[in-house]
């Protein structure tokens, strides 16, 4: 078998006469990248600031330990791809090990393992020189603090959409976590790739290959006997086992010299001159919303900001989860999945989709806008489902506006918008000896949005001209449906829909898919309410590239809102009466006295005219309202 050796040497150098690597930055745990500064750690030329925020503890572990692991990126139960990068292990989301699943290293490994059907035998040594901790006395960065205060202001001023938008922008800028601890030093690692079927022949052969990988690591870095192998086997079997390796990838981080061209002792000494981050300690970004860090906010406002931020993080992660079968032996294997589900099993039943309906009801005093939201069923052209289908509630949105005239406040009016899908009253079952076929009427042909490609076609369009593209009003969703098709090849089984508000009618109204179906995020309704669809493919469509990460925000806001981000409420009692107005002086007091009298007279006349106009407008509005009520009766 061809033996490929690929050396990837990433030697990162930095002066360490003065510490220039700090915790306190944001961290995107999906991409494994540092984000903007959350705490005030940008400029530490000021020694006082350094002592206030950072605590450095020398570690100098003279004993460097060899660590071995088996990495199968498609086995999320036994493999934690990024655990060695974090103090105390990597973060998880609802039990899912998706940390780093959009990082460059992870995706490169995943692509290689899929193309070559291999696993990775990794050996690495970390040399920890010092540990840098974030001090509790460190203050938030001014920009991060301002953004959090803005979120609170939007919430307290009943601008929930703006608060959601600002929270999602915060996650885009600062990530999902922040670093509160760094371990500095250097590391060397070697990844040996081997055919999965070869490695898993039996336990004895697996141990031989692990021993061979450790021996190869010793040889590559000219390690001395003090780095003893945990595996015991004879040299001949190790030599034979090494022949089965298909690829070798070497990583070196930290230090000023290449460890391949010098001794391990020389490389270790150079680390003190150029250390890098070997491990990070991270905390959820919501932990920064604390009273001692944000004294401007009340306890209630802190809770609101924490909830908004947590929802924004969850929405970001959920938008980038790809559920699917990760068993490489299954016909339903989906290599782009980063969360394993029950879709390796064969479907026992399926359903049909009868289209969508969106209704709108608004107070009679409101400026009529329901025509922008109402959506008739594509098949019936009414607000009723086709025969054999019933309406299933997916999402409710309530808008509130000032009623009647815009010149003065008369009350709050509501507009209620409800989205329904039409679910089939009957379902098809798989027989004990037969297969389950996709029905050729009322057929679902996929969906797409500006952020999501159609899972059936892999592009932003329907399978063919037989399908009609139906846009869901007041959203970015396009659905492909057809009343009748002749060719059902490559079309998925349909297993219902659910949202953050309503469960799946096909699964006892639970917010999940039936067994053997995978969840697909369609879009975020109202910015943070995710809408899911359940699909099951008999054959997974061929996808050559892993999906790119989808970054927030997940909705747009009107331009006038975007340009008026500050929502300060100023009370007249907050103005200091002793403050001199801008542009005035003692010299102008006598000159402006006569002018002020004239302006006062003119102001009184204008005030009288405004009062008369307001009274007349109220009378017109009441007459208009009476006519609306009469027309409604």
Task: Please render the helix and strand layout as text.
Elements: E1 4-7, E2 25-28, E3 33-37, H1 47-53, E4 54-58, E5 66-71, H2 104-116, E6 118-134, H3 142-156, H4 160-174, E7 177-195, H5 196-199, H6 203-220, H7 235-242, E8 245-253, H8 264-271, E9 276-284, H9 299-319, E10 323-324, E11 339-340, E12 349-350, E13 353-362, E14 389-402, E15 412-424, E16 428-429, E17 441-448, E18 468-471, E19 478-484, E20 493-499, E21 518-525, E22 529-536, H10 559-562, H11 589-632
Parallel strand pairs: 1-8, 10-11
Antiparallel strand pairs: 2-3, 4-6, 5-6, 6-7, 7-8, 7-9, 12-16, 13-15, 14-15, 17-19, 18-19, 20-22, 21-22
The average pLDDT value, as a whole number, equals 82
Tell me the Rg in angstroms. 32 Å
Helix content: 10-25%
The main sheet comes to: 7 strands, mixed
Distance between the termini: 85 Å
Spans of at least 5 consecutive residues with low confidence? 1-19, 560-597, 622-633
Shape: flat
Number of helices: 11
Please, how many domains? 2
How large a portion of the residues is in β-strands, by DSSP E?
25-35%
Organism: Adineta ricciae (Rotifer)
Domain MACPF: 1-320
Keywords: Membrane, Signal, Transmembrane, Transmembrane helix
Transmembrane segments: 595-615
